[in-house]
Amino acid sequence: MHINERNIILASKSPRRKELLENIGLKFSVKPAEIEEVHRGAESFGDIVIDLAEQKGEAVKVLMFHERLIIASDTIVVINGQILNKPDDRDHAFEMLRTLSGNVHSVFTSLYVSDAYKNAVVKEFTETKVEFFQMTGEQINAYLDTHEPFDKAGAYGIQGYGSKFIKKIDGCFFSVMGFPVPLFSQKMYELGYAL
Question: Regarding the domain delimited by 3-190, which CATH topology (the fold level of the hierarchy) does it fall under?
Answer without folding.
Answer: Maf protein (3.90.950)
